[in-house]
Design brief:
The complex is a heterodimer. Helices cover 27% and strands 20% of the residues of chain A. By secondary structure, chain A is an alpha+beta fold. In chain A, strands 15-19-14-18-16-17 form a 6-stranded mixed beta sheet. In chain A, strands 1-5-6-8-7 form a 5-stranded antiparallel beta sheet, covered by helices on one side. Chain A has a 4-stranded mixed beta sheet with strand order 2-11-10-9, with no helix packed on it. Helix content of chain B is 77%, strand content 0%. In chain B, helix 3 runs parallel beside helix 6 (138-165) and helix 6 (138-165) packs antiparallel against helix 8. The chains are: A alpha+beta, B mainly alpha.
């Protein structure tokens, strides 16, 4: 028997209906894009700003709700075989590229072959892929070497953008001049990019979802200075400040401006999580009790309330609460300096110097480093802050030349895609970033992550990942801090902008302006 | 010496400067005893305006740290950096200038070209580059401030030595066969000292400003609370919380003003010509 995920056309309209307001047609939205993207061809460039602009030009096979449930995109329905090795996608019919050519399964096959070369994360996501075939123009079948639970989560536009075969076939994708005028199937078409000034997208009149998009176009304004971006919003020059457009400390002030709406939603798919690498090789931090003491010593509620202005969530363990198989049934580390002191004493810590390296990403992160340092000094640790710049900090991290170092990473919805890489022994690779930098190695954890990635069904994966979360939280390989939320600030007249787990990146499809 | 103090005290500006700096030194030395809480400690809710809570008179900053405590501890860093870097600059500049002026000729040429090499590079950017390369710490800051501020000392000393060298008592010393070291250190330098002292007092003021500017740009020692750091960290929230920036800014202003006034006073007191006129 096939497990059938029936298409629910209403699904995509669900949030619109919740507002119980009829969308109004027309109008142009001005949004900030920061920094200016290096390019808009999503199969080649995946920087944050590129995804934000091009996610509205290109589309993926699926979209993901705020709870990361797959929703129809270019695929209108999909089935997974009982052995979890065959994924069959039925593509939507009558979809055309911006230049009028029809979209078919051949474009999907072509995109996958291209992405394997140009898109590092897609290549990684597709390691378990045995073959992909198109029995007819509107069906694509993926066959896996072995079951891979997270597979259903890799079809988002930024992770697997579908590009037009008729434009790129037989050319060098990297140097094709068409990259300057991207052609997608999305709700908006590329119109003009005035470097250093703005990127203009206009409504796709032939978009395959009837009646959408509601607005006539988007101007992505490029404003290099953070203070100037705040001012641009205050004066009404822009209506949308995507997460990270303005400095954190400015968020409360701007949020209080009249007719301003703020939301932390729309980052669920990325679920950025901040933590401190604890170098498990350092003589002091090799002791589990010291690492636990650090968890008790740091006032994470304070960091959330004061440094992040109340946005985000205190992390309970390696998985963000927004991703699959998260459990909060793990040992807890509330702010408890007395306990931290006791643990340090038990561990025989005698005031050896420990270096702390804040993330050199601006004010917020500097303040955070200062607050954590004070927390640790308060329980009797001897902390020296190391000041450095971005290349310097990357260098020190990948050479393992640190004791405590701040970071934040995306988790991509599934522990097999975004969590395991930071804790398994095979990911201890000197000279690379964002892997197992802390040098934690536990054969049991390795085994569990290995099993978890390919186990079926989901209940089995859940069991495995809950077990691994418990072990990790007990061992504290790194000091988890906050699930970050980057607030999206909009003029309240912009409705229904954030409807998916990737937020602004594919949000303008459903957005409309109340006049 | 008595005469010096008499002259110094006759200049009201100099007296004010002395009072300010004495007070600042007092705070730097004993502030920690009066105020044992670390300035990095989060003591109250963030953004508490000044004069609302008697425990934190001058309010709190973005993390709830006491601005008053920051001022007290910042005094130590500012003065320390000012005095030490000036001392280092003098130890480089005075001997170089003296040797150049005394020996003249090729030695003079070589040393002065070397000095000009440093003088042609704008001092603040050079200091930024040095601190950025060496990683910000109190040592790299003191070092780079010293490196950018010694050339004027060398030029001044050289000029003084050049003129003093032709005096009869120096010629006499040479004729009697005194060693060069003896002549420079015992005969010439003591007489060249007055302008150097005046310059040094202004250099301290300049060093305080340089340190503040570096910290303002985020190149301060991350483990030390300084006034420049406070201004830099508060700059971004100036529209919500003026007090975080204004108080340390005023502290910088007053102490730099104090050093300048002292310099003025010293100039009046040590300059024999001015001293004669005022008699």
């Amino acid at each position: 028997m096939l497990k059938k995920f029936v298409l629910a056309l209403a699904l995509s309209g669900v949030s619109t209906m919740a507002l119980a307001q009829e969308p109004k047609i027309g109008g142009t939205i001005n949004a900030v894009i920061q920094p200016e993207p290096p390019g808009l061809m999503l199969a080649l460039v995946q920087n944050g700003p590129t995804q934000m602009v091009s996610g509205n030009i290109y589309e993926g096979l699926l979209r993901y709700s705020k709870t990361l449930e797959p929703q129809p995109g270019l695929a209108e329905s999909w089935t997974i075989s009982p052995d979890a090795k065959t994924y069959t996608f039925k593509l939507k019919q009558g979809v055309t590229w911006h230049d009028g050519k029809p979209f078919t399964a051949a474009d999907v096959l072509f995109s996958i072959e291209t992405l394997k070369v140009t898109h590092a994360r897609a290549r990684n996501n597709l390691v378990q892929l045995d073959k992909v075939e198109a029995p007819d123009d509107y069906t694509v079948v993926f066959t896996l070497k072995q079951p891979f639970g997270p597979f259903i989560g890799i079809f988002e536009v930024g992770s697997m953008p579908i590009i037009p075969k008729h434009i790129y076939e037989g050319t060098d994708v990297k140097t094709n001049p068409a990259n300057n005028t991207p052609i997608g199937t999305g709700p908006f078409m590329f119109k003009e990019w005035k470097k250093g000034s703005f990127i203009q997208l206009v409504k796709n009149p032939n978009y395959h979802v009837k009646g959408k998009p509601y607005i006539d176009g988007i101007y992505w304004q490029i404003i290099p200075d953070a203070a100037a971006r705040s001012v641009a919003y205050e004066t009404g020059k822009v209506d949308v400040l995507p997460g990270g457009s303005i400095e954190n400390f400015d968020v409360p002030r701007v949020s209080k401006l009249p007719n301003t709406c703020v939301t932390g939603d729309g980052w669920e798919f990325f679920s950025p999580m901040a933590w401190m690498w604890l170098n498990n090789r350092s003589p002091v931090l090799a002791n589990k009790k010291v690492r636990q003491a650090i968890m008790y010593a740091v006032d994470r509620e304070f960091a959330k309330d004061v440094i992040w202005n109340g946005l985000g969530k205190v992390a309970t363990g390696p998985s963000s609460s927004a991703i699959k198989f998260y459990t909060d049934n793990v040992p807890k580390y509330p702010y408890d300096p007395a306990k931290a002191k006791a643990l340090l004493k038990e561990a025989g810590y005698k005031g050896e110097k420990v270096r702390l390296m804040p993330l050199p990403y601006g004010e917020t992160w500097s303040r955070w480093g200062e607050a954590v340092k004070q927390n640790l000094v308060d329980v009797g640790m001897n902390i020296e802050t190391i000041a450095t710049d971005v290349p310097g900090s990357n260098q020190k991290n990948m050479e393992w030349d640190y004791d405590i170092s701040f970071t934040y990473l995306y988790q991509y919805g599934d522990p097999a895609l975004g969590v395991g890489r930071n804790y398994v022994t095979s990911a201890i690779q000197k000279g690379q970033l964002f892997n197992n930098l802390e040098g934690y190695s536990n054969p049991e954890v390795d085994k569990l992550f290995e099993e978890g990635a390919v186990a079926t069904p989901d209940s089995k994966r859940k069991e495995i990942y809950e077990k691994v979360q418990k072990i990790l939280v007990e061992d504290v390989p790194v000091a988890w801090q906050l699930e970050l939320q980057f607030p999206t600030i909009t003029n309240c007249k912009i409705k229904n902008l954030i409807t998916t787990g990737i937020g602004v990146n594919d949000g303008f499809r459903d957005a409309w302006i109340d006049k | 010496m008595k005469k010096f103090w008499k002259l110094m005290l006759r200049n009201p500006g100099g007296v004010i400067g002395l009072v300010i700096i004495t007070f600042a030194i007092f705070i730097a030395l004993f502030g920690q005893m009066i105020f044992p809480t670390s300035p990095w400690r989060m003591v109250q809710r963030p953004f508490l305006p000044p004069f609302t809570n008697p425990m934190v008179t001058l309010g709190t900053d973005a993390l709830g740290r006491d601005v008053f405590a920051g001022l007290i501890y910042g005094a130590r860093v500012s003065l320390l950096v000012g005095l030490v870097s000036t001392t280092v600059a003098l130890t480089i500049g005075v001997p170089l200038g003296a040797i150049a002026g005394y020996f003249g000729g090729k030695v003079d040429d070589a040393l002065m070209r070397f000095t000009e090499f440093f003088q042609t590079i704008p001092s603040f950017p050079l200091a930024i580059v040095l601190v950025a390369i060496l990683q910000p710490s109190i040592y790299s800051i003191v070092g780079s401030i010293a490196i950018v501020s010694w050339p004027p000392v060398a030029r001044l000393v050289r000029g003084e030595v050049l003129s003093l060298r032709t005096r009869e008592y120096v010629q006499a010393a040479i004729v009697t066969g005194q060693s060069n070291t003896w002549i420079i250190s015992r005969e010439i330098l003591p007489n060249a000292l007055s302008p150097v002292i005046v310059l040094a007092s202004l250099m301290v003021a300049n060093a305080i400003l340089l340190e503040s500017s570096l910290s303002f740009l985020g190149l301060g020692d991350p483990n030390l609370m300084s006034w420049g750091y406070m201004v830099g960290a508060g700059r971004t929230v100036i529209r919500q919380a003026w007090w975080i920036t204004v108080f340390p800014g005023v502290a910088i202003l007053i102490s730099v003003l104090g050093m300048n006034l002292i310099g003025e006073g010293l100039n009046d007191a040590l300059n024999p010509r001015l001293a004669k006129d005022s008699r």
